[in-house]
Amino acid sequence: MRGGRLVIGALAAAACIAELLTGASGSRAAQYRAEQQLSTGNILVANEKLGDPNFAESVVLIVQYEPDEGTEGLVINRRTEITVSRIFPKTKHATKDPVYLGGPVGVTAVQALLRLPDAIEHATHVMGDVYVTGTKDLMETSIVSQADPSKFRVYLGYAGWGSGQLEAEIQLGAWSVINGSAKIIFDKDPDSLWSRLTRESHMQIASARVTRIGQSLKR
Predict the structure, then answer these.
(1) What separation in angstroms does the CA of 26 have from each of 48, 108, 158, 205?
(2) Mean pLDDT of 139-157
(3) Is 57 inside any structural domain?
């Protein structure tokens, strides 16, 4: 990630990793269809037949997309029992809000998604007013200012794909691609986000089929 990532201490990391691995789930995911070009700010929704337990029923925000270098993303719907105050124990106003498991890569690396009115140093633009940062000072500033969870969330780890890898997975039907929005990224009920996006997709697919059938009958 451009700008680097905060890395938590070894003992804290070991404890956090143990909790994350203990709580990992391999539950089912949903069928979706990808029909657009990938870009930073897109959202990936896992297919119900995706067998990788790291991504089952996951919703992933693409935070960096470079066709020749690869893709990085953050799983945005997987809350943990780890709190912000545990990751930032010395930071004033650190809350008991949950930290998210951003992905299986580098789970000792800390990043944050935040909403900002304007671009600032050490924060990489994702889409709209949403930015990603791995800079400790910027994350602590957000915590001290008591940023609301609708504008600031912390993630451990990230998802990563090599050049062409994610595109191949999408062609195989592992993921669907939808346009990102702050409303989805900072959804109030992330635990049900995957199922709601999946249900909406099924309804759209069914509607499209009905439309196609109707058009064919008119010919």
Answers:
(1) 11, 21, 17, 26
(2) 97
(3) yes
